[in-house]
Specification:
heterodimer, A: mainly beta, 6-stranded mixed beta sheet, 4-stranded antiparallel beta sheet, B: mainly beta, 11 strands
Chain lengths: 116, 110
């Protein structure tokens, strides 16, 4: 069974600085997707970024980028120029690539605090 | 615009009562999922469906059931609510690509 581990329950960053959230996973599959979701106090789950395992290039979405290390099974999220609105819970998630098997396995989350 | 909705948003019930949480999506997605979110556990999969009349157990399915009579709806039923089922419940749907989440239902079992 796949597992996803987020070892940082809480992180803090100053506004305009850069922060990196860690995620590791365990799988025997060679093809899969990885995701980072943001959950602000509203509870809404918002997709931040996704990475296909077969792509060597790291995904980037504006101020959000990932460092995907397939051999190490590591998938960290870097937030640049942090803003107050980035304060939220962040969840790393794994999904098999296979056809209809689109179930997500989540990590336990990292709470990010952004300070002035 | 297509969306996924959950009702009620908040629910308080007593131990032993049957409770049904509704999930409705207008994406026309075949795949639908129910998760529960608890501190220290992230989101865990309860049940999922890949189409009408298809249902499957997730990792924490005990005490829950679902039925899929149409594409749009996947109601989650707690047959006999227990205090351990106090949680926030999320419904999601997908077309084998991105999962779209509902706003969540906070359920308290007293």
């Amino acid at each position: 069974a796949q597992t996803v581990t987020q070892s940082q329950p809480e992180m803090s960053v100053q506004e305009a600085e850069t922060v990196t959230l860690s995620c590791t996973y365990d799988t025997s599959e060679s093809d899969y997707y990885l995701f980072w979701y943001k959950q602000p106090p509203s509870r809404q789950m918002i997709l931040v970024i996704r990475q296909e395992a077969y792509k060597q290039q790291n995904a980037t979405e504006n101020r959000f980028s990932v460092n995907f290390q397939k051999a190490a099974k590591s998938f960290s999220l870097k937030i640049s120029d942090s803003q107050l609105g980035d304060a939220a819970m962040y969840f790393c998630a794994y999904r098999p690539y296979t056809g209809t098997a689109s179930k997500l396995t989540f990590g336990t989350g990292t709470r990010l605090q952004v300070t002035l | 615009d297509a969306e996924i909705t959950q009702s009620p948003r908040h629910k308080i019930t007593e131990t032993g009562r049957q409770v049904t949480l509704a999930c409705h999506q207008t994406w026309n997605h075949n795949n639908m999922f129910w998760y529960r979110q608890d501190l220290g556990h992230g989101l865990r999969l309860i049940h999922y469906s890949y189409g009408v009349h298809d249902t499957n157990k997730g990792e924490v399915s005990d005490g829950y059931s679902v039925s899929r009579s149409n594409t749009e709806d996947l109601p989650l039923t707690l047959e006999s609510a227990a205090s351990s089922q106090t949680s926030v419940y999320f419904c999601a749907s997908s077309d084998n690509d991105e999962q779209y989440f509902g706003p969540g239902t906070r359920l308290t079992v007293t």
